[in-house]
Amino acid sequence: MFPDPGSLGNKNSSSLMLCSLLSTSELEMKYGTSIDKGLSSARAAEILARDGPNALTPPKATPEIVKFLKQMIGGFSILLWIGAGFSWISFGIHNYKEASRSHQLYLGVVLALVVILTGIFAYYQEAKSTNIMASFSKMIPQVRATVDNSSLTGESEPQSRSCDFTHENPLETRNIAFYSTTCVEGTATGIVINTGDRTIIGRIASLASGVGNEKTPIAIEIEHFVYLVAGVAISIGVLFFIISVSMRYKILDSIIFLIGIIVANVPEGLLATVTVSLSLTAKRMAKKNCLVKNLEAVETLGSTSIICSDKTGTLTQNRMTVAHLWFDNQIYSADTSEDQTTQPFDQSSPTWTALSKIVTLCNRAEFRPGQENLPIMKRVVVGDASETALLKFSEVILGDVMSIRAQNRKVAEIPFNSTNKFQLSIHETDDPQDKRFLLVMKGAPERILERCSTIMINGKEEPLDSEKAEAFQTAYMELGGMGERVLGFCHLYLPENEFPETFQFDTDSMNFPTSNLCFVGLLSMIDPPRSTVPDAVSKCRSAGIKVIMVTGDHPITAKAIAKSVGIISATSETVEDIAKRLNIPVEQVNRREATAAVVNGMELKDMSSEQLDEILRNHTEIVFARTSPQQKLIIVEGCQRQGAVVAVTGDGVNDSPALKKADIGIAMGIAGSDAAKNAADMVLLDDNFASIVTGVEEGRLIFDNLKKTIAYTLTKNIAELCPFLIYIIASIPMPIGTITILFIDLGTDIIPSVALAYEKAESDIMNRRPRNKRRDRLVNQQLAVYSYLQIGIMQSVGAFVTYFTVYAEQGFLPSTLLGVRVNWENNAINDFEDSYGQQWTHYQRMYLQWTGYTAFFVSITIQQVADLIIRKTRRNSIFRQGLFRNKVIWVGIFSQIGIALILTYGLGHVTALNFTPLR
Amino acid sequence: MARGKAKDGDGNWKKFIWNSEKKELLGRTGGSWFKILLFYVIFYGCLAGIFIGTIQVMLLTVSEFEPKYQDRVAPPGLTQVPQVQKTEISFTASDPRSYEPYVRNLDNFLRDYSDEQQTENIVFQDCGDTPTEYKERGPYNDGQGQKKVCKFKREWLDNCSGLNDPTYGYKDGKPCILVKLNRIIGFKPQAPANESLPPEIMAKYNPNLIPVHCVAKREEDADKIGTVEYFGMGGYPGFGLQYYPYYGKLLQPRYLQPLVAVQFTNLTYDVEVRVECRAYGQNIVYSDKDRFQGRFDIKFDIKSS
After folding, report:
1. Min CA distance, A227 vs chain B (Å)?
2. How many CB pairs under 8 A join A and B?
3. pTM confidence score
4. Is residue B25 a contact partner of residue B17, using CB atoms and an 8 Å limit?
5. What CA–CA distances, in Å, run from A45 to A39, A53, A55, A543, A553?
6. Which of A209, A347, A483, A689 counts the highest number of beta carbons within 10 A?
7. What residues form the membrane-spanning segments (chain B) (predicted)?
């Protein structure tokens, strides 16, 4: 790692530029150091004291206790605390006035317990998901490519460093090395000009943490839902408080009603259920190679409407592969899939034999030993990307390349360099009869062609006339136009008389011919798209998600890849395409006609945000090429201005602001830097774009399923609330107790509502548009009305039928029940008369009342089973969705019934719980 | 509720309530509101219909003469008149206003037991002056019309009948309470087995009697409770079995449940004395949870001035 210079951005770049401009001695002066001796230890200690250690300040973490307290008072908890408080107050007053009314005390304790337990649970779930992340970063081996600036700029080509000042931009100049980058090769001495947070990477890291942590859509939705329910709870509570006070209930009783109404209205178990559902999905996604850091991000992915994807490694395989060949005046295409074992093109021509020999011999790349059992495509190679591609290509076609090379012993070699742009080697031939040396050469096609006088057609050397040169040009343009990197290959058999077996080749004086060679063919290479990507892109399309490619690559390459994966569809054209087709200047083209656009980073630099908005609005298929990672942030912001939920992929340190800014930042697990992984909400373990699409599907599924869960949970609230309202208004004996309600909310209903999270996707899940953040709420009018006013009321009616049946069969016909509340609850009346003239003691009535609670409870539970089956589907019919596909639902149903049985028959004798055995 | 648009700005809420351009009230046109209203009227109408229908069907399964189940009401409770809050009788013998509520309560209760209320022979039947066997009156339905009811003579209650002393002994500091067993249809209390009874009861034992006996709740109060007098049918301190079983409100609308009057003639003044009364019978049980099942306890606090 290099210690590194300073800061980025315009304000500070002047001082930095100064540094890069200064001469060595001036630098020594400025920093009070010497190149040979370094800082004196006293001075070093002084600087350390001033600047602190050379490390990045870790982002401020929220203290655990604060997180925990947040869980304790967030959401509904505060309502429940109020309820508990009221219970204790009323218990206190009761206790003062009369002896034994511990009921209120119990209730308060139970409510407090509920809050604390759910709080602990949610905290635990959150903490667990963070732990997954921590262990993960240790797990992934740090395969930082042997590349220097990639963590900073995302460029994967190694860059040379020298003492020359080459560029005003500190990032571009050659005489500064950066913190966190690695030195691949060579030695150098430098002077530390900045440390820790003042380095470029420190700047970026602080920029990333400066980008506000936006609330995730699901957090907003849940907040909205909590407000909604809390609003309903409080307004109904207060309304009935007023009603009961004006109906001359005692204030204390009215407060108890208020607690009952709040408890009935608040779905206590729901937030815990949501957390569980999210973490279940997170687990499922982790299996599909999407590691979710922040639970809520699971759903964000589902509402994504724009994905800004990297090209290299995400859309492509991140390895050069031979895609096309040109020999005998003909273009052949090669197989570029991930697991190729053969190449299907025609290999009968003698030209191909010659070409393959050059490809094999003129290559310095080698397989690492000991990988014979691995498939060729998976073997590790020592050498640069193009050579690796060529090596693997020839290994696939010819078999054991190393032995071929051994048979054709290399006698001399000139490696590739940027001035001559070719690579040359001279070999003995494998034919013992043939004593000639073979000179093979590869390099930039035009340079190679310059050195050739003949061209091989069908194995025969023919003079290179202008017609053939023209054919070469056409092929070269065509391959180049496909965004591929083209190499030319030529050879020459050195005449035996001039170069006898003992000839000493000297590569410095070049005592051998390097012109008038015989041109054999062209090979073009590309980093091919992953085979799963086109399908994933088309899925995105049908799901209404716009995929934007953002890459540092050349526009032509970018466009070619975009076309091959479907980001730019086959029929759509860019402005330039239209101009070319109509043969008119680009300016005259109606921009609205072009659906696709390829935007160059340089153009983007000069654009105002309005112009960017216009591009994002008017074009459905967009590729940003030659962009710097900083521009990613601009693009993300542009997309967000359109109201889109934006997912961004990134791997470099420089991507971290964009990852933070995005609604969901996706870091690459293999190629990604730690900074990117830290800034991201999600990590793609296999760097594969297709995994994002799976993630989207899971995210949509969880939103759907949460809707189902909430609808399921809200329904019974009405059946829990109505008893209170009718109790207050009609003065009937209390149909259901507060504690019983808690047993429904936190007992029988929990497992079924979690089970809904296991529900399979409905058929249209990837065929509808992404939800609109503003319109498609988690809890909307339809859901609330359907749950509360329709199913909920039906459930209440059902439960009341049970209630009246229980009382009627015990002797209290419905008509007798109305208005009896005061005498019914008076514990001095022990000869209360029923419809038949029988007399009841107070305890007998209470016992009957608890039987009523239990019956009401069982009735709601049974109806919730039916509700669960209704809620399985939103759009599909139940038969299409299948009753048995989600087995967990059945676990839920049986658990529900089981818990109800245990409560009624097992705990029927615990007075505090108010359950009685039913017949 | 807002259909998205109304949330655009806070200033729009007025428009949301009444949008004069589109004639929308709360985001919907009149027609739309009408349709919603109509839907809910029909929907809830049907629900109400189903609810009432189900309840009616349920009521068909329930007999009007006897309840389907009685497991929650039996065994019967034992209660006292006057009925008092917190089961405490507290008064000053010299101050009529302090015991007036109790007296009125007793008066009201005993009104049905007056002789003039029990004259109709078509309803009432003389069941004798001594406890006898159960009086079975046939099946629990109105096939034979209403069932007859045993008379209960108020004078049996003697000092506590209110006939001689309209204050039921309260003015002398000798309060009376009436003890009754809760009515339960078809319930036949069984006379207790001899050996289990307190010796005081054995003195007036009768095989067809459910005896009632009151003692101090706490041992240490035993000397404060003084003499306890019992007045019941024919002088027996209990309930005669001929009053059982009870046939219910419809068949015996004027049923008189047997009473035992208990008079505390020598209670200690100015202290709280807790008294527990029990009815004894083989199928009369007591429960820790229900303090009124087969017994009750009552507190006396008589102030001397």
Report:
1. 14
2. 122
3. 0.77
4. yes
5. 9, 10, 15, 59, 45
6. A689
7. 37-62
